[in-house]
Design brief:
mainly alpha; single chain
Length: about 260
Amino acid sequence: MDIQIVIVIILNSIISIIGTLAYSVRLVGVRTGKIAITYSVFNILSLISRLAITFQVPILTKYVEHNLQADNIYYVFNLIILASGAATVAGAFLIPTFQRIFYKGVLRFSIDKSIPKLLMHSFSKTGIHYMKECIAVPMSTNITKIRVKSLPIKIIIFNMIAVSLLTVGSLAPIYAGSLIQELRATCITLSSIINGTATVLMSIFIDPQLSVMTDEVMEGKCSEEDFRSCVVAMVGSKCVGTFAALTLLIPATSLIIYVARII
């Protein structure tokens, strides 16, 4: 396998894992009672994710430019999506461990009030020892105890759709450019067509609803158990949505090509 594709898969896996872990951040915020600090600390991981996204697209674009005549480009893109799905599942299994470590990190930051000090403590002998003690596996009761009637089904479905769109949002334009080489640059700049729809779903329907639920838990209007069930369901919809992106690659690519030809 080409080294560029290996790098893209690694970067994509990092993005997918961090994106999955993000769902558990609200739970940590509720348990610590420090919502603002929780998001502030998580921004460290968000920066890593953004950095991975910054390098992923140009590396993949360069690979495609040097392999325009290859017959396996479509399968390479499917492989990237499958790797993203596998990383999302891995991220779901890492959530219990991440929650315990992140919980301690938030409490530590509220004392030190310094990200550099938090990082130094994390990689100290004491910090590494604590991380080892935090290793845990997901409990089946988190799924079996889910009360379907209490779940925001529409939000979960919207999340699955948004995740699918975001997964192909940066891939479809590059693949479209490989199919119509005379409009390659135009296609690559049209990622906002796919990502924009996902952003609208996230901004209007998903994030506000989760924020309301977070506040209701803090106010005692919603039980933490129901909120945890919602988070588990959202993680599940992300896993399904990532793999479902396999079915959207061709339609999204066709849409990009259509728009590129008419503008």
